[in-house]
Design goal:
The complex is a heterotetramer of chains A (154), B (323), C (589) and D (619). With 154 residues, chain A is an alpha/beta fold. Chain A has five helices and four strands. In chain A, helix 1 packs across helix 4. Chain A is globular. In chain C, 24% of the residues lie in helices and 19% in strands. In chain C, a hairpin with a 2-residue loop joins strand 1 and strand 2. Chain D has five domains: 108 residues, Glutaredoxin, CATH 3.40.30; 211 residues, NADH-ubiquinone oxidoreductase 51kDa subunit (Rossmann fold), CATH 3.40.50; 103 residues, Ubiquitin-like (UB roll), CATH 3.10.20; 90 residues, de novo design (two linked rop proteins); 60 residues, Alpha-Beta Plaits, CATH 3.30.70. Chain D has 24 helices and 18 strands. In chain D, the strands form five sheets. In chain D, strands 7-8-6-5-9 form a five-stranded mixed β-sheet, sandwiched between helices. The chains are: A alpha/beta (154), B alpha/beta (323), C alpha/beta (589), D alpha/beta (619).
Amino acid sequence: MKEQERFEPRIIGFLCNWCAYTGADLAGVSRMKSAPNVRVLRLMCSGRVDPTFVLRAFQLGADGVLVAGCHPGDCHYQEGNYKALRRTLLLKRVLRQFGIDERRLRLEWISASEGEKFARVANEFTEEIRALGPLELTAALETGPALELEEVRA
Amino acid sequence: MSKPKLALYWAASCGGCEITVLDIEEKILDVAAFFDIVFWPCAMDFKYKDVEAMEDGSIDLCLFNGAIRTSENEAIARLLRRKSKILVAFGSCACDGCIPGLANLTTREEILDWVYRGSPSTINENGVRPQPKVRVPEGELEIPEFYEEVRTLAQVVPVDYFMPGCPPQPPQIVKVMTAIMTGAQLPPPGSVIGAGDKTCCDECGRTRQEKRVKRFYRPWELVPDPDQCLLDQGIICLGPATRSGCGALCVKANMPCRGCYGPPPNVTDQGAKMISALASVIDSQDPEEIQRILDQIPDPAGTFYRFSVPASLLHRRRSAPAA
Amino acid sequence: MITVNINGVERQVPEGTTILQAARALDVSIPTLCYHPWLKPFGACRICTVQVQRPRGYELLTACNTPCEEGMVIRTDTDNVRQARRVVLELMLARWPNVPVLQQLAAELGVEKPRFRSEFCDEDPEACILCLRCVRICEEVVGASAIGYEDRGIKRRVVTPFNRESEACVACGACAQVCLTHHIKFEPEDYRGKPPEFLLGPNTAIFIPTPQAVPKVPRIDPEACIHFKTNGCQKCVEVCEAKAVNHEMTDQEIEIEVGQILLATGYELFDASVMSQYGYGRLDNVYSALDIERMLNATGPTGGRVLLKNGQPPRAVAIIHCVGSRDENYQRYCSRVCCMYALKFAHLIKERCPEAEVYDFYIDMRAFGKGYEEFYSRVLHEGTNVIRGKVAEVVQAGWSKQDEGTLLVRCEDTLIGRFREIPVDMVILCNAIVPQRDAERVARLFGLSRSPDGFFLERHPKLDPVATSTDGLFVAGCAQGPKDIPDSVAQASAAAARMLATIAKGVVEIDPVRAEINEEFCSGCRVCNALCPYSAIEYLADKNVSRVNSALCKGCGTCVAACPAGAITGYGFNDRQIQAELEGLLAVR
Amino acid sequence: MPYRVHCMVCAGTGCVSNRSLDVRDALEKELRKRGLEHEVQIVTTGCNGFCAVGPLMVVQPDGIFYQQLTTKDVPQLVEEHFVKGRPVQRLMYTPPEAPAPIPKMSDIPFFKHQRLIALRNRGLVDPEKIEDYIARDGYQALVKALTQMTPDEIIEEITRAGLRGRGGAGFPTGVKWRKVREARGEPKYIICNGDEGDPGAFMDRSIFESDPHSVIEGMLIGARAIGARYGVVYIRNEYPLALERIQIAIQQAREYGLLGENILDSGLDFDISVTRGAGAFVCGEETALIASVEGRLGDPRARPPYPAESGLWGKPTCINNVETWANVPPIILNGWEWYSQIGTERSKGTKVFSLVGKVRNTGLVEVPMGITLRQLIYDIGGGIPGDKKFKAVQTGGPSGGCIPAGMMDQPIEYVAPDGKHEARDYLDLPIDYESLTEVGSMMGSGGLVVMDEDTCMVDVARFFLAFTQDESCGACAPCREGTKLMLDILTRITQGHGTMDDLRALEEIGWVVKQTSLCGLGKTAPNPVLTTLKYFRDEYIAHIEAHKCPAHVCRELNTYRIDPVICVERGHGCGVCRRECPEKAIFGEKNQPHRIDTTKCKKCGVCVDVCHFNAVIVE
């Protein structure tokens, strides 16, 4: 496959502000090479990641979603990461039932000092999603996304 | 001045919503008196051509229940949209896809294969399958096309009001009908009527503790305490993520709410919200133990999206099932 | 008021005053024996006889119980009075010649030698002279009525019913206190099983526990105080000018609205008896560090002298470090303070028993503080033997006479690589410092988590050691981990400073990022209540909704994600903002 | 058909112990045998007082007095007296020197000099029948008091009558009643003190046994006067018959509505309960008695407060002796003038004395105040038996003193009514409260012990002091220790080890115990010793210096000698004494004079008793 037609996966990365985001920042500061496919979204805590966001990301065309939080016990808010862990485990089962490969959703613990780990995870995850290919979730739906009457109102 | 015209139609659904209209007992007489029922194929013998003969927008109120499964459903949906001023997605099937919508978790091929070959009660040696057009001695027969997926009414035509519930409860119907009949000011188009803004918990009345669930039980595994919140007792109840309006009927019968009244106002994906809430209250920090607890939920998608697969963000399963 | 004439002096006295009281008011001395200010006058001894003029001559009456009458003329110094008192006294001396109080009275009244000797004569100087003050105080003041008298006439004796120990006796010692001849003794040792060191001063029911008690005020011991047993007595109330005694006072629970709390609940000493090999609580003369601290204290049971159980000073003392600390099966951490106080003990014992031999068993001598190392070398110079090795066990020495009572300390001296068995008289165990027994309950009460070793978890071990994860809650001293006094003081002042800083600011700043519940959509399902690590979300039962305490909320957003009704908005990171970000991120292919 | 003859058989304790009831039964059987049971009524009465000659019977209406009856005399008596109408001389009472028996009871000197008020119904009523009492104007005084007199008038009557307490102190009863009436506190109590602890005194017993209703009526009148709600009869447990009779009387009074609620619908609610004394002499003292009634240990307590203000259960209480209560009905019935004529100027009415000791007619006599000792001992008492010389009389029991008779040659003080002192022989001393207290004795309950020359005064003093010492409650030191020490001294003197200092000690200690003791027992215990010391000091000195007991009562001081002449001439050396002597201290042969070895002789006195010829001389 030619360089430019190669499938470039679009990955959304929900990073917790205290550890993962700082780690990613450290990776950048330390000039570590990491795949640009991970598009970062900063949240105060991995506990803030609502499964709705993950589904919304897939629905909007993301091919993979990375959730990164502090190591268990390190969470700035004590237990936020544990909640992320539980939600992710349940969400993976539902994704499987919706025919979406659960590997497209990945949960990682990255501490503020693990810039190198962030880079590694970003690269690994990008290759993994590339292998899985595009999700094309809504291609078949003629009418496009469900008519969101709520939007009308909001 | 002639009476306002009322139309009801029964698309891809169980027909319960037709019956629930009658469940408003003697009030049906007021409705009949107020409205001129121009199209109710389930109750009286109306034909398509009768509707096509009407001018556009002449039907004042159309209660459309049922999801869009076949081409016929789509056609009549578009027809009634054209013909009626107010089109109401009446009942969960029309609003969120409801039980028929669960088909989106499988494919068209798997359904037909199972019905006409796989199910233990089918005897179909030569694998006959129904075709959209078939020649028979009498002539050419046509049946509607069986779409790949189930869509909600709003995913086919713009809908003026959504009235959730499987079926919508008679007291809610009475409230809506009297509002219309008395000419009360109607809410802005697109809003949900016949239900509350709060969740089922608001009408439930059971005492609830801080949620710390160590184990999930299936409803048949224990007789729940009638005064304590079911979720506290480890029974999965979708009450917290379901719009109020039914008066928590199921919970009052000591059975968990399954979410038929659809998501509450601020929630787009009812299933996702329930996953988030439920996962958060699991009382364990060890991954293996969490997995063991989650194993106690045999069909997560079916449980959390029982009534809202088509309306959900993922809408349907991707064609190729995962390896 | 009535007027009476005592020895020629006119005097106005209120109705009902007895002659004795009137006389004492005029400080005319009248001898008394069976009279006691606390008791109703009884008139048993007749020593207080005075002469009252009567129309037909005179009458000898007892002053203690005869009320004054209008115009009564009383003489307390006539011959008849002196003669009557002398002979009555001689009668009593005939029966109890050696009772000091009678002999002293005899000297006063001029009775040289008792002329008579009764057949029932009792030589005992502490004989009971039947003044019945004991019986009366037990009846009238104490209200226990535990003792009385039996038989009649010359054979009358003060006894407990059936001469058996009376259950009614509340062991208050009142009878012993008023007994003129100390016939009733009061042995505190075996009484009421109080630990010996409390039996120092008089065992009254109201006492100052120890000279250094803080606050140094007397307090009432409910088990000993008669009032709580028989609702009688309350003499302390009567005598206290400041009227400060109040028996109804009970513990009160007072609730104070505070903004900040400093948890300085301290530590507990590890129960060394669990390590049976050291024999604490089983062998004599095996003491824990706190026992020795109490013994060395000047106000302690031995007045500061280091003594064995048999009262002799020890010839050899063993001090064993790390009892329960740095131990796989008990406490893994080091208790930090034992090494230094062990050296202090060694120094003090050397000072108090110069010829005693002191052995100090340690693993690593941790003299980490300022001036600690210098103290360690000084103690070494004073001749303390230090042996590096964990002590295996302490056993009773052999049964031969001269070994009787000595203990053998068995350990492996890792410096010389040989097993050693050292005979000592006394063993001092340096028990580990462990969290308070109720630490679990206190932690949960304050929503505080505990570090693996059970002490309270500080916000950050290095950067924020005195604060905790909850704002306004601070921790200092051994509650946060074993430490010695300098460190504890430092932490305490740090915590105080932090609290004062917040108070000084007067305003609590909360960062904008936090959550808020829209009560219109919340149905009180309480899913969010348990989630919040800062217990910032409380459930309002009456309105059936939950509410976020914005002062406590840190804005982590966990509850926003979890709320099934979408009723919680997280400012700064609400759903619509994040949705918009998602759409932006995924807009470009 | 009414009875023509009434046989009043005495059933007092004395006569009953002499089997007077057997005589009654025999009489009854005999009368039935003769068919006379309808004509002759047998009445068992209380004690007549003449215990020396019991069992006795008085045949009414002619008042024939039979004495020392036995069942064997009954047939003759019935035959002679009841059938033939001739009284039986043999069974009558003949005074010692008198020529012939005296048939009529009223002529017998023992009864003639008496004046009966408290004992007015003795021998005339059956104590167990209220009807008999009513027949003798019983309860008339109560009716008069309830209907015609106000409580103040009752008190006025008693006060003017001059009635004084018969318990021994002689406190004016009227004054006591007024104090209790005016004292604050409800309900009020009245107590009948029947403890009578004095040894040898049995007046209260015989009042209870012969006429219990007079006590009840007296208490009812007292209750009306004082406004008392409850009465208590405190009676010695050692008087079973008296206890039974007073209980029967109370029960009968209740049945007749004379006790209980609204008595004779006069609005007076009053009832009497009986409490039995536990035998302590000290419980005769009022505060000790109250303690005993309240169930507490019978110890006296200091006074004031007097029982009048705070007595039983802390309420105002009036305590009077049995005889005092018995005197009340006659006073109310006959008026105070009648009563105040009897007795002396300051001691009105009569006093019942129990005449005991060395006197021929021992028994119970009720004599007017002011009678002299001589009349009492000789006229009534019949003199000293065995023509022994009268030595002294002890009055007032253990609290009283001894009055010598033989001091003729020395003028003896006596306070005459006009307050002047006159020298009179004590025997002619009119007995009343003041006279007896003057001579150091005390009226006391009325015990009168006559002593003849064979009585050793030191021994008498020791006997009475031993009693009070043993009965001392032991609460206060002087009485407890003093009486014991005095007793030790007296015992030493009677054993011959006394010294002259002992006498001074006895007086000193006696004085202190008398002056400083808490209650009446202690204050009066030394009286017997002090009075014997005062009047019989020579006997004490004899005991101490001569080591001799003039009356040969103190055995350790006696020496026994056999008169050789009598022993041989009359006794022919019979040797009885030699055989009987437990110590084998007598030697001698038949027809030989016997000799006592004084070193072995334990002075037991057996030889004196066994020698028929009085050969043994005691010096």
